[in-house]
Design a protein that fits this description.
Blueprint (H helix, E strand, L loop, with lengths): L1 H8 L1 E6 L3 H4 L4 H16 L1 H14 L2 E7 L35 E5 L8 H9 L4 E7 L4 H11 L3 E10 L3 H14 L4 H4 E2 L1 H9 L8
Parallel strand pairs: 1-2, 1-4, 2-3, 4-5, 5-6
Helix pairs in contact: 4-9
Length: 208
């Protein structure tokens, strides 16, 4: 148990782009994906919320990495303005609101590692294992995973707390992780229920 406690204290659930723009009608990215995509994106909110609650109880850090664009961001040469900083579109969806102790950081392109504050926040907290969740399996989650892998982080992908524009691209993203980054796929591709059950056996950290 002490070893598992230590592992979790050095772990973080990274929540990528669970902002209104990516999930609900009226969001630029959500509208690009269409109604079927919006429904699938919305369906991961409840399981992801359960995962975050279990993480907080077990002492796992929760890190939000969410688009917060400014007009000069290079990504806006590819995509129309979306999730602009300070707007409703950039706000994290209501069912996943950050809580005290969580880390909330904006990002300006696909990978949060291009925001120096992101990696600094991980290093300051001694975080070495990242549980990847959010949107999209084949884009921002993939770029974040690539940067994390090449920096030596231990990665776990929460398969039912990730989504993409289509189920096919979601599955392709998971296969990409398995092929290029996973060294122990059975340990590194997990479900919400598996992790919640595992973390429930760990006593809550003592309050100082």
């Amino acid at each position: 148990m002490p070893s598992q406690r230590s592992d979790l204290q050095h772990s973080a659930v990274v929540v990528i782009d669970m902002a209104n723009d990516f999930v609900y009608p009226g969001g630029v990215i959500a509208e690009a994906g269409g109604p079927d995509y919006q429904q699938r994106a919305q369906r991961i909110i409840a399981p992801l919320g359960r995962l975050l609650a279990a993480a907080r109880r077990a002492g796992v850090t929760v890190v939000y990495a969410t688009d917060a664009h400014t007009p000069g961001d290079s990504e806006l040469r590819k995509w129309p303005p979306h999730a602009m900083a300070g707007t409703w579109n950039a706000e994290i969806v209501p069912g996943l609101a950050p809580e005290r102790g969580d880390v909330v950081l904006g990002k300006q392109t696909y990978s949060p590692f291009l925001n120096p504050e992101f990696e600094r926040a991980l290093e300051e907290r001694g975080l070495t294992r990242l549980y990847i969740t959010g949107l999209h399996t084949d884009c921002c989650a993939r770029h974040a995973s690539g940067d994390a892998f090449q920096r030596g982080y231990d990665l776990v992908w929460v398969t039912d707390a990730l989504q993409a524009f289509t189920d096919e691209t979601h599955q392709a993203g998971l296969e990409y992780f398995k092929t290029w980054y996973a060294t122990e796929p059975a340990r590194q591709l997990r479900t919400v229920d598996e992790l919640v059950g595992e973390w429930a056996t760990v006593p809550e950290p003592a309050v100082a």
